[in-house]
Structure formats: C-alpha cells, structure tokens
Amino acid sequence: MLKNIDLAEMVPALLAWFDANARILPWRENSDPYRVWVSEIMLQQTRVETVKPYFDRFMRALPEVQSLAAAPLDQVLKLWEGLGYYSRARNLHRAAQVIVEQHGGVFPQTPEEIQALPGVGDYTAGAIGSICFGLKTPAVDGNVLRVMARLTGFTEPVQTQAAKKHFTCLLAEIYPENRADAVTQSLMELGAMVCVPNGAPRCGECPVRHLCEAYHIEKTTEIPVKLPKKPRRKEQKTVFLLYCRGKLALCRRAESGLLGGLWELPNTAEFLSPAQARDWLIVQGLRCISIKAGRTGKHIFTHIEWEMQSFVCECAEESSAFFWADEQDLQQNLTLPTAFQILLQ
Ligand code: SF4
Predict the structure, then answer these.
(1) Half-sphere exposure of residue 204: CA atoms within 13 angstroms, side-chain side
(2) pLDDT in tens, 67-101
(3) Are residues 123 and 242 in the same domain?
C-alpha cells in the first residue's frame, strides 16, 4: 500500500493538473459559502449537467442566504422540482433560517458550526470548510473514496465508516497550508473526469498515475471494492387522477419519510381492480361521472421501486378531503414529484 510520504507527493501534480484542466462551473465563479453550499447539496446524488440549470435558477430566485430563509417552503420545493431527494431542499431552507437566526446571516466558519446545520454532513462540511475558508477539512464522498482506494491499492470495501475515516485522516495530513480549496476540488475533479466509476478509468490522462498502486498492479477495474447492493423493495400503487371542472385533486404526504411533506396524487398501497377502485372513491365521498384506466408507470428511488397503475376520474363535485389544484397551482406554486408527474395525461 502507498505510504503517506508518497501520498503527499501527489499534491503538486494534482494541483498543476487542476489549474490547467478545471471545468468552468457556475458555483466556481467565487468561493461565496452560500453558493458553494447550495451547489454541494444539489450535487449529492445528482449529475453536474443536471444541476447547472437548477443552480442558476435557484440563485436568480434566492441569491443570498437571507432570501432563502425568508422564502416560503413551497417556493423552495418548486425550485427543486425534478431534482429529487426533496429532504435536501427542506434542510437547506431550515439551515438558512438557522444561519439568519443564530449567526446573524453570516455563514458559520468552524467545522463544528458548519456541521451543526441541518442537512450538512461530514462531506459537505469538509467541502465548505476547505473551499470557502481554507480549512484542512477533506471532503470524502464516493468519488474521492474511489480515487483514494485506487491510489493506495485499498482492497477493503469503501462504503464503510471505517474506510471513510481512514481516507479522511490520510488526506487531512497532506492538505497544504494554503490551497486547501484546490486540493478538495482537484480530487473531486479527478474522480469526475479521469478516475471515473463504472468501467476503466482514464489512466493515460491521469496526473498521479506514477503514484497509483491500482495502476501499477493492474487492478484499476477491481478497485474500489464494494459491498453487495441490497435489492430494492418493490411496492405496488394505484394512483387516482381525480379531476373536477379542470382542477386536479392532490393531498400532502406525511412530513417524515419518502417525499416527506410533498404533494401527491391520491393513491393506495396496492393494485386495485376497477370495482375496488369504485369502492375506494365512494369511501372518499366522491361521486364520479366517469372512470377509466390511466397510464401505468414505474419510479425508482434509492431503496424502493414503485410500480404504479392509475385511474382517471371525472368527479361531479370537489371533496374537502383533497386540495383541488388548478393549472397555475401545478405550473407555478406546487411541487408534484416526478414519480406522480409521469402519470399525468
Ligand atoms: S492512475 Fe488510473 S486508477 Fe490511478 S488514480 Fe489515476 S485514473 Fe485513477
């Protein structure tokens, strides 16, 4: 395995490569912690190209932490619509309020204070600390774990807390006094552009190839070692598109759990036959003028897969059991997760 002294050698090579090759990204225009924070939260589980237009729109609508803190939650969720993992947006909103209320609107600068913000874990705190405040706080996510595992020839599974801690400690030792920001970003960039996942890395373009253990022992596709994936739980749903004079019935999901607190189309946690669907409508106090089978669809979350069938119903009158959204509500005000949007006609 690579020794720490060798690992320290990679820093100048990595920084020279980063200076020459860093992509121009909207959140790299400056090191304003608000912009870096929002981008890092958006980039969790989401590709750079997907995030770019969302980031620009978010910054135009809510350009500073004060505007995010003062915004209604529905506006924040609407700006997030389509990005998924909505708890990120809710935490972002809560954390902005904490920054305004407890830190006078000034982004906290110590690792402990940053990490105490809702939705900010080790990785995000490390990224903000190093990129914005020059702290020697590595940001170790899946990309960096992959790079470090290959560089050091690490043959244990990388998705464990022990592996994360191991590499965080190794990196903290080699962060230079200045340019902590560039070390963090160059590792992220190397993982995204050269030492890529899913298949062979582009070792021919790699600035630290001469130090890389996996490259020397020809195990770049076998490292990182991963734990076996748990199979996704499958759930069946019957979803109702209930229309009444052009309005669509929605309800709120429970505050906690999957898609917590978001709007949804009324649904049941099983497949219903047409006769059972009619019974369900009666129980909801709805009188239907027509009912027909609608679209089917599948939506995959990280650990769950929804298989959905739907019924489209024209209702004789609105029921107070639901919120009846008009076109403007759906377009401008309310957030309907993609899982349900795929069933809309
Ligand atoms: S040499 Fe290849 S495997 Fe090693 S760090 Fe570079 S890209 Fe990754």
Answers:
(1) 1
(2) 999 999 999 999 999 898 899 999 999 999 999 99
(3) no
